[in-house]
Design goal:
This protein is an alpha+beta fold. It has a single domain (5-131), classed as Aminopeptidase (3-Layer(aba) Sandwich). The protein is 24% helix and 26% strand. The protein has a 6-stranded mixed β-sheet with strand order 1-2-3-4-5-6, with helices on both faces. 22% of the residues are buried.
Length: 148
Amino acid sequence: MRIITQTKGAFTISTDKSKLDINVIHHYLSQESYWSKDIPVARIQKSIENALCFGIFHENKQVGYAKVVSDFSTMAYLGDVFVLEAYRGQGLSKWLLETIMSHPELQDLRRWILLTADAHELYQKYGWKPIASPEKWMEIHRPDIYKK
């Protein structure tokens, strides 16, 4: 898949996995996120290998991340979206969502899904809505799977 890179001032968004800082991603997801507490670094590495990843960089330092898991034909799952606290309030999450939603391999999908506890307002700006028929959805959810 072709690498996408966009720059705004001192910030860059790239899908080049070789630029990702696994330590930054692992620290945020395992220590700061509410959805991946205690996730092992090996799980992060495997998820990166099997997803389309978007890194946000400030002068080559990773400051944000998101991944998309997709068949690139009918559906996509957006997950692990974050911007480090010191870099929030600069429009980076909006730019990240615009970049993801306009990615050429992610056009004309029948369904996008994501889970969020606190960013509904952000996602709604890009067409996301609550699930229309939640009674049709099922899941296996193990929130404590990474706890030691």
